[in-house]
């Protein structure tokens, strides 16, 4: 999935960003990052690497201790969180932290309140969003009465309805089944087609492999790799330092090699691996006609 | 005697029209490592809440049938009594951490059970080491990251040495490296202590190689409970929209187009073993 990258200047730009906690510990140690309009990127890395801290600088929840963050060319130091959050919608890891209304419908309406819309527009948009997210049937239910996966969906819907240019997701596939991951993947695709910029913080390496063109790998407050996902997620960077494990396909590939089955390097998607195994099995069957096939 | 016994149990939460659990009948024995699998909203968390009496004692709602844990009826037994047998680590660790420091948090449950000081220290050292949280002991649980909280919640349950350990997506907030480590550790604990572990986990690729039985849920029903091999080669597992491991889905496709016959491998080592033997 690649959106249309149209403008030359980055929509998210960070220069030498540092962030220190009140006890002096540095969570970010000189982050330089450019994300362009229409891009889809993943940020990956160990727990505590600084991923969530970094995305919090995008809507001004955190102001850097040193360095600058520019959103649409505007310095986040000079903008209020309210203003910035119209441009940048962040969906946090724990949905319960951002849900507080009595019903699911009210949750969406609340989110739309400070966008200068009239009552009718708010109701219309709420209806559309509830339908899109298949939460219509739970309209009058309390957010506390949803399953873990559905709560996550509601949290996404409540930010999504605001139609911001930049969408940032912190672990969107966490606790989601394959049907919901497919729903999310499709949503991202549609938003990219509309020219949105999307940043996804994730541990889901298989999701990144299949869907995200560019990945940024963080460790210990720094960016240690930035490039095409399938090159970044190879052995070189997947050390204990980044705390990721090799994608299942790469693991399978190297295990195959150990037993003398050479699988070409470009077998880096599920479908390519399937064809490779299929051909392998067919050849074996031809060579050994006496087997029980 | 069954360790866990659901007898035609149904439950609906107050305020919801549809039942979260329907006619559940399940008999679970000692010394098993069981995966609880199902799409989101299929009733996994509700099923877990029945196993220490939270349903129906704590959550308002309506129930039919009965649940017995080690012979105790969960409607009559106190939750405190049940928690000496069943340890549960919930999806959202924040909700179960109450103390001011991690050390107090881990000691809290043991203090309530009247465990001797020496024994407490021994168990604490062991669990803290296992979960790699030595450096967090004097921090407040609320200032930890989600992944750290998850490991603290696990340690605070492990020290109670329950006969039944139930984990609702215990690795959701962990990075893949730590997730793999913790799941393997749980398997080792299960082997060593002969306890029954029931685990709901979306990372199928990591958990499948470890479990010996699977409970399948859909729309509030238990639609299958059997050995791993029987479940993963059955139609129900195939048709659920859960995160099948890539290896499984590749070989499943190949078995549909008849290139592959036999038991579908669910992990890389199984697939390698099969392919190696073809030579």
Walkthrough of the structure:
The complex is a heterodimer of chains A (293) and B (279). With 293 residues, chain A is of the alpha/beta class. Helix content of chain A is 37%, strand content 20%. Chain A contains ten helices and ten strands. Chain A has helices spanning 51-58, 81-87, 104-112, 119-132, 148-160, 178-193, 205-211, 229-232, 248-258, 270-287; strands at residues 12-20, 26-35, 40-45, 66-71, 74-75, 88-91, 166-170, 197-201, 214-219, 222-228. A six-stranded mixed sheet of chain A has the order 6-7-8-3-9-10, with helices on both faces. Chain A has a four-stranded antiparallel sheet with strand order 2-1-4-5, with helices on one face. In chain A, helix 3 packs across helix 4 and helix 3 (104-112) packs parallel to helix 5 (148-160). Mean pLDDT of chain A is 87; it is low at 287-293. With 279 residues, chain B is α/β, with parallel strands linked by helices. Chain B is 38% helix and 22% strand. Chain B has twelve helices and ten strands. Chain B has helices at residues 44-49, 54-58, 79-82, 102-112, 117-130, 146-158, 176-193, 204-207, 228-232, 235-239, 246-256, 268-277, and strands at residues 4-13, 21-28, 33-38, 61-69, 72-73, 86-89, 164-168, 196-200, 213-218, 221-227. In chain B, strands 6-7-8-3-9-10 form a six-stranded mixed sheet. Chain B has a four-stranded antiparallel sheet with strand order 2-1-4-5, with no helix packed on it. In chain B, strand 4 (61-69) and strand 5 (72-73) form a beta hairpin. The longest helix of chain B has 18 residues, at 176-193. Chain B is globular. The mean pLDDT of chain B is 92. Chains A and B meet through helix 5, helix 6, helix 9 and helix 10 of A and helix 6, helix 7, helix 11 and helix 12 of B.
Keywords:
heterodimer, A: 293 residues, alpha/beta, six-stranded mixed beta sheet, four-stranded antiparallel beta sheet, 10 strands, 37% helix, globular, B: 279 residues, 12 helices, 38% helix
